[in-house]
Amino acid sequence: MQRRIKTRSNTSRYIEILTDFGWKHYFGREENKINLINFLNSLLEGEHVIADLHYANVEEGGEHSGERKVVFDLRCIGEGGEHFLVEMQLQNQDFFFDRAVTYTSRTISRLAKKGAEGNGYELPPVYFVAVLGFQLDKANYEKYYYSAKIVDQFDNELLYDKLSYKMLVLPNFNKSLTNLSSIMDQWMYLMKHLNENEELPNYLDKRIFSRIFEVGEVANLSPAEHMAYISSIDRKRDYNNTIAYAKKEAKAEGHVLGIAEGERKKALETALNLKNMDIPFDKIAKATGLSVEEIERLK
């Protein structure tokens, strides 16, 4: 029997979902796959229903020896043969859409039947699902759910329904408890606020979320699991601290640059005024700190 441990005083009662350990614990274990089924069904409500699924290898090698390997957070296959690539990405990443297309393209390439069997080109549905800790579009700071398929750009007619991209942007989700209008809203709220709870709150659907609270207590982890979890939390905190420090440094640097730009603008204005008064360029340069060449170009 494994020895259980007490929760550290600086750790919440429940395992944080938004850590590498937590994501795999709640959604990547066979015994907890009902959580993943419930999550995906909430996301696909009205579009598709998953009765069951099984986990697949998360690594996808290239077709050629030198081709880069991709590693998914979770990859699973539904009872009807549909494929799900499920990602949690908290760190801001350039070309995220390119990555999503690369992942689905690699999967589709592997699924395409070869030879005579592939004459029909029939493919199973492929879903790319991502929970993001950064904004995809900073100008669109209120949009928290992206859902994309292949549609005609002129009339939005759906052309191909077997390739789907679903992305949840947590920083843009700011609904209050009294405004959670769907199960997906409840999922997003829980992902952001699970560590603030001591028990299953009334605002969550118990049929969907009871399993999260049953398996999520930190105190029920084995010592080895607890060490892995704390390490996962530390990596997340280190990243957050690094980002916060970088933002602080950028703000300070921007302030210094702003002062410097303001002083230069003032020097240029002064130099132009002196130039218009026919003051010798060498004297203007001495007074303003500008070069003679810069003064000559002023108009």
TrEMBL record:
InterPro entries: RpnA. This is Putative transposase/invertase (TIGR01784 family). The lineage of its organism: Bacteria, Pseudomonadati, Bacteroidota, Sphingobacteriia, Sphingobacteriales.
